[in-house]
Amino acid sequence: MGHQIKTIGLLTSGGDAPGMNAAVRSVTRAAIYHEIKVKAIMRGYKGLIAGEVREFTTQDVSNIIQRGGTILKTARCKEFETAEGRAQAYETIEREHIDALVVIGGNGTFTGGLALSQEFDIPVIGLPATIDNDLWGTDATIGFDTAMNTIMDCVDKIKDTASSHERIFFVEVMGRDAGFLALNAAIAAGAEAAIIPERRTREQQLDAYIGNGIRKSKNSSIVLVSESPETGGAQAMADRLKKQHPEYDVRVSILGHLQRGGSPTASDRILASRLGVAAIEALHEEQRCVMVGIKNDEVVYVPLSQAIGRHKDVKQDKVKALQILSI
Ligand code: F6P
What we know:
The chain is α/β, with parallel strands linked by helices. The protein has two domains: 7-143 and 264-309, Rossmann fold (3-Layer(aba) Sandwich); 145-260, Phosphofructokinase domain (Rossmann fold), CATH 3.40.50.460. Helix content is 42%, strand content 18%. The strands form two sheets. It has a seven-stranded mixed beta sheet, sandwiched between helices. It has a four-stranded parallel beta sheet with strand order 7-8-6-9, with helices on both faces. α2 packs across α3, α5 packs across α6 (180-189) and α6 packs parallel to α11. The N and C termini lie far apart (57 Å). 6-O-phosphono-beta-D-fructofuranose binds next to loops.
């Protein structure tokens, strides 16, 4: 039992994700239940450096489980990537008598948390929250299910225009370097293809889609494309197709940040609630530098270094299912 943990610091960092508030509520209530004080840190690591800290009560997290975004605010903090920045952050930790940090976020959040933990020997527990679902060791990250449902709803609507005008739509979705959103939403929305970073080149994937006979049995078509600032994403794919097939009526739709907003799904709220409780239990069990995740419906502890260092691959049967079902 981690009896030395009397106070935790709690922050959200990186891109916001639906369900972060449910996680903030869960960590706060579970900590207070176990008689641990919660110091809420505003604006992620930026606020930790600046000393933007205040104690939270259970009332501070009332009525937020259904809200998107994060009441703690968030930021991407370049300063925290430096040793000086982290030293300043540690001054706040000492001043506020914080014994452990609970950080809610994705890759960048965990990278910063790991460095801080190693440099100052402080326990850091991570809750995976990113719409990208790109953390190893957990079946899902908080926010992924909501974003996937948002994309599905958008594609359902785009399909009305696609079929009425007999058009081909390239719909660009987020995911950074991961294709989980594109692939899963493509299956859920009954799209014809998904162009994702995990498989061959984007051009090869496009050529395979064209090679399958775009208009074999359908007059309209939807292709989900993972964002890619380097290769141009959906627009580049559309331009390439138009060049080869000027006879097709092709359109591009970039969904952008609407994918990050909105009320979390039941699945994300439940995930966030379980992981918040698990984070406090991890501290009780004297875990020091882990992500709490879910594998096969069981809570697991994954070293932060593995969560960010190992590659989580898309499921091959999903790639196959999408291909078979798009005939
Ligand atoms: O990591 C979440 C994410 O939404 C990515 O999918 C996307 O590439 C990135 O954040 C966008 O970040 P920002 O909102 O800072 O532009």
